């Protein structure tokens, strides 16, 4: 005991001796701009990585042909909110192991900018010839306080994929309302016990939000630049109820679906284990590579009444340059290369990722009729998450999934769960 | 922490060091200001040189962080750090979730400690009773579990427990049953893996202890008419006491701080956060919610709790007349 006390006393003593040092803060801005060396790139590890790798490999080869003595090292990072946030924070805190170029979800931009992680590339994009083709509303999604921190690379919206063979067999047609969707899902599962009526997940935030938006609810309302959560409003609650009502033994049993992520619902539908799923256009390549190939069709996700489309989340990924990069010019050149019209078209062919450049998008929409439900969804109006640094934190903390899971598992009713989520969001919005 | 406990014990028990301490004592007569420092402090110096940078400094940083407002904007965004006193602590202690997680952690750790000790002790006794080949087999099996990294072990168990295609469901014929869905079922599965990882340490330590009991002592007891139960209670248990103390303290510390198994097997805290333990909770607050200073405050509280548990345990041992 005495030894222990003495040890503690020693530790305290050591502490007072070292008082001079404060916790380290990373120096993120770099003054160097090397023209040779290795450009490190982090891209998202999507559900079906191989086709993406091919496009990127070609872009890297083209880039190296233009820049002698430059190597490009591409790594793929996890796409789930928690793990990818960890990766990025590691990069912000330790510039020496950080990449030069990053791909990130357009919702992450505000948090990353507040963390001082991304370089301001306003002037670089202004002088980019091909970039003139980028529509203003898309450019605006990457702007904070008048400065641009990201280059919109591709777009993704979600629509309803369904199995044509199963629907024909059961005499069903594509659902046009939420009620039809629910009853179709029940019929599919009662006829095929090994299939989920619709693959939905307790961790699938962007699968759940369209139901909230379709019922007139929202995550938060803006008051000037300050946000207040609205997830506990009456309309939002109706949306949460509509989504969580799909987690029944007759549709998508809570045991199996409560901890599914969006990526898992892709796998489940692609493997032929689900009658329907809410998937983005960029997941089409994964479905095409699976058992469901040739046996599915896509329609916009129905809203509450016939003829309505449930507003989709306007998703997409940006490319950015890290503030800590020592190869700033090379990094900027590389994101321009990846986002060139040629590569956007190639990425579309490989993955189904919708191009951001207007001319490229027009070209592919004309060529590919399967895109129509997605472009229809975009035209019907899309929604976005709060444009606030707090969103990255809310997302990484799984506030929405926790709310959904509490309802799905019966730990809380819709009112209690949404109220708790709203309180948690508000504490993030207020900077706590 | 484990290292400190062990080292403290080592300094204490190493009696051969003391006579050797006489040599510098002789030098003291030769004068010089350094000579006025008492000999025990000189002897502590090597340990201090290792412990202060490795334990003291990080602990100090942890404490410092816990009284600041320090999040991601402060770490990399150039926002100045701010001294906030004890507000991180009041935030933590005022959070109802902290108390429920603390309760869960204590119960989970207590269960794991008891289960690890029971399984380890039974296997140790078994080792002394069986023949050469079964003994080798048990040794290899246990060492394999011990050698498996927590990350790999947990992942492999998750494959086995998979809802739709896991071997466990296949054998039991319960496809579609999600073992991690119910809170207590999930905790039980994690506990199995924690015990599986840590019982070999207990087993090997106690086996070595049992082997070290001289046969002559046991024989003498038997000649005096003691039965197996009496020998176990009056001879073996007292002789194993120092080892048991170490094993219990180590297990308490390990199981209270369990992180990897919970984090990997329940995906960071289970469905709707039902399987959080303190260490994962601190991680969620510090690194996921980007509130490093709040996480540090939880870390300090955990250290204090562990110190208190260890102190109470050692004290109760001393009172019962045992020297650690």
Structure overview:
- The complex is a heterodimer of chains A (432) and B (324).
- With 432 residues, chain A is α+β, with helices and mostly antiparallel strands.
- Chain A contains 20 helices and 15 strands.
- Chain A has a six-stranded mixed sheet with strand order 2-1-3-13-6-14.
- The model of chain A is unreliable at 1-21 (pLDDT under 50).
- Chain B has one domain (86-319): Orthogonal Bundle (MetI-like fold), CATH 1.10.3720.
- With 324 residues, chain B is mainly α.
- In chain B, helix 7 packs antiparallel against helix 13 (228-256).
- Residues 1-28 of chain B have low confidence and may be disordered.
- Chain B is flat, with a radius of gyration of 24 Å.
- Chain B is 75% helix and 1% strand.
- Chain B has helices at residues 2-13, 17-20, 22-28, 39-65, 72-76, 87-93, 96-129, 132-147, 150-160, 167-172, 183-212, 215-223, 228-256, 260-265, 278-288, 292-319; strands spanning 68-69, 82-83.
- Chain B has a two-stranded antiparallel sheet.
- Chain B is built from 16 helices and two strands.
- At the A-B interface, helix 1, helix 3, helix 11, helix 18 and helix 19 of A face helix 1, helix 4, helix 5, helix 15 and helix 16 of B.
Quick summary of this structure?
The complex is a heterodimer of chains A (432) and B (324). Chain A is an alpha+beta fold and 432 residues long.
In terms of topology, how is this protein built?
The complex is a heterodimer of chains A (432) and B (324).
Chain A: H1 2-17, E1 37-44, H2 49-66, E2 70-77, H3 81-93, E3 101-105, H4 109-114, H5 122-126, H6 136-140, E4 143-144, E5 147-148, E6 151-156, E7 158-163, H7 164-169, H8 178-191, H9 205-214, E8 220-223, E9 226-229, H10 234-244, H11 254-257, H12 262-270, E10 276-280, H13 284-288, E11 296-299, E12 312-313, E13 315-321, H14 328-338, H15 341-351, E14 354-355, H16 358-367, H17 372-379, E15 382-383, H18 389-396, H19 399-408, H20 414-429
Parallel strand pairs in A: 1-2, 1-3, 12-15
Antiparallel strand pairs in A: 3-13, 4-5, 6-13, 6-14, 7-10, 7-11, 8-9
Chain B: H1 2-13, H2 17-20, H3 22-28, H4 39-65, E1 68-69, H5 72-76, E2 82-83, H6 87-93, H7 96-129, H8 132-147, H9 150-160, H10 167-172, H11 183-212, H12 215-223, H13 228-256, H14 260-265, H15 278-288, H16 292-319
Antiparallel strand pairs in B: 1-2
């Amino acid at each position: 005991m005495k030894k222990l006390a003495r040890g503690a006393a020693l530790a305290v003593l050591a502490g007072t001796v070292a008082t001079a040092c404060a916790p380290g803060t990373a120096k993120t801005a770099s003054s160097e701009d090397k023209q040779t060396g290795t450009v490190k790139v982090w891209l998202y590890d999507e559900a079906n990585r191989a086709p993406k790798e091919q496009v990127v490999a070609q872009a890297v080869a083209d880039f190296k042909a233009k820049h002698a003595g430059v190597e490009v090292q591409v790594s793929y990072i996890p796409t789930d909110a928690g793990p990818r946030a960890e990766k990025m924070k590691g990069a912000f805190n330790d510039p020496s192991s950080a990449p030069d170029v990053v791909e990130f979800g357009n919702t992450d931009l505000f948090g990353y900018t507040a963390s001082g992680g991304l370089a301001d590339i306003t002037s670089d994009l202004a002088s980019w010839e091909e970039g003139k083709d980028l529509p203003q509303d898309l450019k605006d999604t990457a702007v904070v306080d008048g400065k641009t921190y990201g280059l919109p690379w591709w777009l993704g919206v979600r629509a309803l994929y369904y199995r044509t063979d199963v629907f024909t067999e059961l005499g069903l047609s594509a659902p046009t309302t939420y009620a039809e969707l629910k009853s179709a899902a029940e019929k599919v599962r009662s006829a095929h016990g090994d299939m989920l009526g619709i693959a939905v997940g307790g961790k699938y935030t962007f699968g759940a939000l369209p139901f909230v938006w379709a019922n007139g609810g929202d995550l938060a309302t803006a008051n000037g630049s300050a946000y207040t959560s609205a997830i506990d409003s009456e309309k939002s609650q109706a949306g949460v109820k509509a989504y969580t009502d799909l987690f029944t033994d007759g549709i998508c049993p809570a045991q199996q679906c409560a901890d599914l992520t969006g990526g898992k619902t892709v796998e489940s539908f692609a493997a032929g284990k689900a009658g329907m799923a809410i998937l983005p256009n960029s997941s089409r390549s994964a479905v095409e590579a699976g058992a469901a190939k040739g046996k599915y069709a896509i329609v916009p996700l129905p809203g509450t009444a016939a003829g309505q489309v449930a507003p989709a989340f306007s998703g997409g990924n940006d490319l950015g340059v890290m503030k800590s990069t020592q190869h700033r010019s090379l990094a900027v050149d590389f994101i321009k290369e990846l986002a060139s019209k040629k590569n956007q078209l190639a990425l579309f062919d490989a993955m189904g990722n919708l191009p951001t450049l207007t001319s490229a998008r027009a070209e592919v929409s004309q060529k590919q009729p399967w895109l129509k439900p997605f472009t229809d969804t975009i035209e019907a109006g899309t929604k976005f998450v709060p444009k606030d640094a707090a969103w990255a934190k809310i997302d990484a903390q799984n506030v929405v999934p926790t709310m959904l899971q509490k309802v799905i598992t019966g730990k809380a009713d819709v009112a209690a769960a949404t109220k708790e989520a709203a309180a948690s969001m508000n504490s993030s919005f207020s900077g706590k | 922490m484990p290292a400190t406990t062990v080292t403290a014990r080592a300094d204490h028990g190493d009696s051969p060091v003391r006579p050797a301490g006489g040599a510098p004592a002789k030098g003291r007569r030769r004068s010089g200001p350094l000579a006025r420092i008492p000999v025990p402090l000189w002897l502590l110096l090597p340990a201090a040189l290792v412990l202060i940078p490795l334990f003291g400094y990080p602990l100090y940083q942890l404490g410092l962080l816990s009284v600041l407002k320090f999040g991601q904007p402060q770490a990399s965004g150039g926002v100045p750090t701010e001294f906030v006193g004890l507000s991180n602590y009041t935030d933590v202690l005022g959070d109802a979730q902290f108390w429920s997680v603390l309760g869960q952690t204590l119960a989970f750790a207590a269960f794991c400690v008891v289960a690890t000790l029971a399984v380890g002790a039974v296997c140790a006794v078994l080792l002394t009773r069986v023949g050469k080949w079964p003994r080798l087999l048990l040794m290899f099996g246990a060492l394999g579990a011990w050698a498996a990294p927590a990350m790999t072990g947990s992942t492999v168990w998750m494959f086995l427990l998979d809802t739709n295609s896991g071997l466990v469901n296949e054998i039991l014929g319960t496809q579609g049953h999600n073992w991690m869905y119910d809170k207590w079922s999930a905790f039980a599965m994690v506990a199995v893996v924690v015990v599986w990882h840590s019982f070999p340490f207990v087993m090997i330590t106690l086996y070595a202890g049992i082997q070290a009991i001289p046969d002559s002592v046991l024989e003498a007891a038997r000649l005096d008419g003691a039965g197996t139960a009496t020998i176990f209670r009056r001879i073996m248990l007292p002789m194993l006491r120092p080892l048991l103390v170490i094993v219990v303290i180590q297990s308490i510390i390990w199981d209270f701080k369990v992180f990897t198994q919970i984090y990997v097997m329940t995906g960071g805290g289970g469905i709707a956060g039902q399987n959080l333990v303190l260490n994962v909770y601190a991680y969620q607050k510090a690194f996921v919610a980007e509130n490093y200073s709040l996480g540090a405050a939880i870390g300090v509280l955990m250290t204090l709790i562990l110190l208190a548990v260890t102190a109470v345990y050692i004290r109760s041992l001393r009172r019962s007349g045992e020297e650690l």
